[in-house]
Amino acid sequence: FVKFANIEEDTPSYHRRYDFFVSRFSAMCHSCDHDPEIQTEIRIAGIRGIQGVVRKTVNDELRATIWEPQHMDKIVPSLLFNMQKIEDIDSRTGPPSSPTGGEKEENPALLAENCFRELLGRATYGNMNNAVRPVFAHLDHHRLWDPNEFAVSCFKIIMYSIQAQYSHHVIQEILGHLDVRKRDSPRVRAGIIQVLLEAVAIAAKGSIGPTVLEVFNTLLKHLRISVDFELGDRRSSAGSATFSTSSKESDERIVQNAIIQTIGFFGSNLPDYQRSEIMMFIMGKVPVLGTTSQSLDTSHLGDLGTRRIQIMLLRSLLMVTSGYKATTITNALPPPFLDPLLSPSLMEDSELRQLVLEILHNLIDRHDNRAKLRGIRIIPDVSDLKIKRDKISRQDVSFMKKHGQQLYRHIYLGCKEEDNVQKNFELLFTSLALTTIELANEEVVIDLIRLAIALQDIAIINEDNLPMFNRCGVMALVAAYLNFLSQMIAVPAFCQHVSKVIETRSLEASYFLPETIFKDKCNLPKSLEKHEKNLFFLTNKIAESLGGSGYSVERLSVPYVPQVTDEDRLSRRKSIVDTVSIQVDILPGNNTEDKIDNTEEITFEALKKAIDNNGLEEQEKEKRRLVIEKFQKAPFEEIAAQCETKANLLHDRLAQILELTIRPPPSPSGTMTITAGHAHYQSVPVYEMKFPDLCVY
C-alpha cells in the first residue's frame, strides 16, 4: 500500500475511497499483541499505512474526504496513542526533527510524530479545526490534562507544524475547550490554561488574528469562576476538615496564577497600540465602587470575593504594563484608565495600594530608573545613580496640569492609611521620585514640595490618629524625598536646609529617618508634640531658598488640600469634607421654633411630584459634577480669581437686596457681622458669617 501511495497519478480517481484503509490502519496502530516485537511491527505498519493514506489524498483539494471528522477521529488518536510512548519529552517540543532512517523504521513514536507533523502541515483554513478537535477528545479520554506534560508537547507540535496564519484557530479551540471543561477539577483547568500559555507564546511571535480580546475576555471570565469556586468551597466546608478545604483553595490558586501568567505573557508580547487597548480592557473589568463599567460581576461574591478579583486583575495588569514604553504620559495614562486606577475603592487594602503604585511605576518610568530607586533611603549623592531623563514635553506638562492633582491626592491619601507597611512607604517614595524625574517642571516641583509639607503635617498634627510607626514612617518618607528632590533641582540653599534637618534628626530623632524607623527593632517616641522646629522642614525656609533661585514660591504659602471626588461620598472609607459643595443659605426666621415635622403622608400627588422632580435632580447632579471637575482640573490661579470676583459680586448684591449695614472686621482674617433688616419685619435677625481671606462659598 505504501508503494501504491507513493505513485504520482496524472488524473485523480474521484470514485476511489479509503474508508476501509483508515479503519484498518487505525486499528493496527492500537495493536496489543502479546509478543512486543510483533506488536511494534504491527503498529509501525499501521502508522506507515496512515501516512500513505495522507500522502495519497491530502494534496487533492477536490477530494478532501480524508479531512472529514469520521476519518480524523480515527487517524489523530491513533497517532497520539503511539506518540505517548516517547520517553524524552523534550524531543517533541521544538520544530520538526530529522531522525535517521533506522529510528523511523524501529520507533513507532517517532514515526507517529513525523506523520502527525506532516498531516498538520498540510491542513488548510477549512479543515484545521477537524484536525485539532480529536486531540482534545484524546487528552480528555486518557486524562492527560493533569499532569499535562504530554498535552503541552502535543500543542507545541501543533503550533510549530501548522501555517502561522492559522494559529488563532488553535487558540480559539483551546479557549472553547476551556469553556466546556469549566466545571472540572482545578488541576484540569490549570492544565488547559498552561497549554494555552504555550500556544500563545508561539503564536505571539507571528499572527494572532482577531482573537486578542477573546483570549483576555475568556481568561478573565474563568478567573472570576475560579474565585467563585474557591469562596464556595470555603463556605460549604465551614466547620469541616481543614485539610480538604486548604487543598481545594490551593488548587484554585494554581488556576488563578496560571491565568495571570497567561494574561501577562500574552499582553507583554503585543505591540504597544494593542497593549494599551488590553490595559483599558482589563481595567474596565476591575470592580470599582460607584462605576457602571463592564466590570466582572462580583455581586454574589461579597467583599472578600470582590477584593480577590481586584487583586487578581491588578496583578494581571501589572504583568501587561511591564516593559511598556509610551511616547507621552497621556498615552500611558488616559483618563478612562487613570480614573478607575486611582479610585478610592482600590485604596481599602494594603496589597491593592501596592499593586496600583507598581502599575503606575511601570507606566511613568520611561527611562528604566526604578531599579536605581528601589528601597527608601537617604541618598548621599543622587548623581551616583546616573538618573536618565529627558526634557519635559509639552504633552507631559499638559497632563500634569489636568491630572497632577489626582496623582498627588492618591499619594497623600495613601500615606494616611493605618495598615501601611514598609513596602507601601518604599513604593510611595518611588512614586514621588519617578514623578520628579519624568514629569516635573518648576510648577510641578512647587506642588510636590507642598505635598511633602502636607504629609509632614499629617504626622505632626495627627488628625487621623495614626499609630506612631505610621507617623514616623511618613516623616522618614518626607525626609528621603526632599533629600532626593533638593539634589535633583540643585538649589544650594534648599539642599543646605534639607541636609541640616536630616543631620539634626540623625543626632536627636533618628526614628524620623528611613534607615532607623524601618529596622526590626526601633524605639518609637511617645509623642511628637515636644519636638523642636529644627527637626522639621519649614515652608518659610524652603520658600526663601527657592525664591532666590527664580522659582515662583507664592503658592508655597497655600497649604495643600486633596481634591474630593464623587466616589468619596459613595465610598465606605472615611471621607474628606467636601469643601466644594458647602452652601450658605440665608433664610429669614430660620429658628428652631419654625421647623416643622418632616414626615408627611404618602399620597398620589406626593408621588407624582417626586417623579416630576427626577429631571431636576439629574440636572443638579450634573451641575455638581461639572463644578467638582472644574475644581479638580482648572489652574489654581483661575479658581482663585473667579472666587474673588464672585465674592465681590455677592457682597454688593447682598447689600442692595437686604439693605445691609456692614461693620468692617477688625483684621483681614477676622469675623464680619452682617445685620439684615426688612421693612415688613419687626424683629431684626442677626447672622454672623466667617469670610476666608480668599474665597466665599
From TrEMBL:
InterPro entries: ARM-type_fold (IPR016024), EFR3_Homologs (IPR051851). SUPFAM superfamilies: ARM repeat. Transmembrane segments: none annotated. It comes from the Eukaryota. One of its GO terms (biological process) is protein localization to plasma membrane. GO terms for cellular component: plasma membrane. This is EFR3A protein. It comes from Sagittarius serpentarius (Secretary bird). The lineage of its organism: Eukaryota, Metazoa, Chordata, Craniata, Vertebrata.
